[in-house]
């Protein structure tokens, strides 16, 4: 196996899955978690099935145990831990959660949504030397805002554009990765692109071809890559998409983050989905 330049993270909330991926690949560079993935954790499902109702504090404690188990299994790309938020959650509340979560493990990245409140929480966090990962990104404008909001971070920030969900809308989601990478070439390198919502082996190989800094991948796609004998894209590799192309935008990264258009319907829907998974599966109160 030729180890790619792109760092590979497992997209999941089950430490056993992380162990299996590490055995399969021989390494795991990091892990991303989110409310939906944690809700699918086998132990959490057992608790719910037994009729136990988790309090907010118990939710945090269970999440902490999960990421503390995953932490030593992965490399220097760390474990991304997502704050619990909905559309009403303010930046200070997100930051307060993030600060606690950051103390759980030595390789934590705190995930905030790509919203105005999430970006404000990220600004507060980088001033406290916390590592951040801005998630639910679906546009080049949003990525430019992440760049501007995280200036001054002592360690690289991550931005997580979601490929598969753009594909679902009939767009070429990989164009967003390509466009953000091109835009960031004009920057200072303080934000790394973490390709997310990877649905296929073709998605993964194109991330390698683009030399995306990081990619987070479900276990089933990693298994497909392994079962295909770990192919790597060559110079003749071409990514084919039936989706509508997403054009490149000329944006000034030196502008304040508030000047960029960060509104996106998929970001709103993503936040709603994560909040619903916690409330329904983990009995989190509204």
Summarize the biggest pleated sheet.
8 strands, parallel, barrel
Provide mean pLDDT, rounded: 93
Uncertain segments:
none
How many separate helices?
Answer: 12
Shape: globular
DSSP strand count = 8
Written as H for each helix and E for each strand, in order along the chain, the element string is EHEHHHEHEHEHEHHEHEHH
**Percent in helix:** 40-55%
> What is the terminal-to-terminal distance?
47 Å
| β-sheet strand percentage | 5-15%
Structural class: alpha/beta
Estimated radius of gyration = 18 Å
Which sequence of strands runs across the widest sheet? 1-2-3-4-5-6-7-8
Describe the structure concisely for a colleague.
This protein is an alpha/beta fold and 286 residues long. It is 44% helix and 14% strand.
Report on the structure:
With 286 residues, the chain is α/β, with parallel strands linked by helices. Helix content is 44%, strand content 14%. It is built from twelve helices and eight strands. It has helices at residues 15-25, 35-39, 42-49, 56-70, 91-102, 116-127, 140-149, 163-168, 174-184, 201-210, 219-227, 265-281, and strands at residues 7-11, 30-32, 78-82, 108-113, 132-137, 157-161, 191-195, 214-217. The chain has an eight-stranded parallel beta barrel, surrounded by seven helices. α1 runs parallel beside α11 (219-227).
